[in-house]
């Protein structure tokens, strides 16, 4: 499958480093906020929202930690995957474009992992605000923005990959 592909040692770009640092900084800030507000958060928090952004499922406030942990685990797994661009699926890989394609695919994974982490950090923050009565629910635009962001990023990198064949 990918046994014949070269394993290149491609240095990380400044943008990859910046996105990782920014996301980790926001994760740390979100985690510190959760810790500092923990006593003020009611025992019951929203665990699900309907399409209008209204909470329609409730559970223990420990679910806020589950969101944070899911974001961190996803980020870590995708960080590991980022290191092995030679195992990704490519449809136009040649000796001439292999480095460009690896960089492009690795950047796609980097952008996606950081978008996902930011979504989990945001959802943790938003759920705590709804639980405390600071807000009534999520904006109806939260899920569409996340979906458009992820699919738009994927589409961008796929189109770029096709152009770079």
UniProtKB/TrEMBL annotation:
The keyword Calcium does not apply. It comes from Fictibacillus phosphorivorans. It comes from the Bacteria. This is DUF1648 domain-containing protein. The keyword Transmembrane helix applies. Keywords: Membrane, Transmembrane, Transmembrane helix. Signal peptide: none annotated. It holds the Pfam family DUF1648. The chain crosses the membrane at residues 21-41, 64-81, 116-134, 140-159. Residues 33-71 form the DUF1648 domain. InterPro entries: DUF1648.
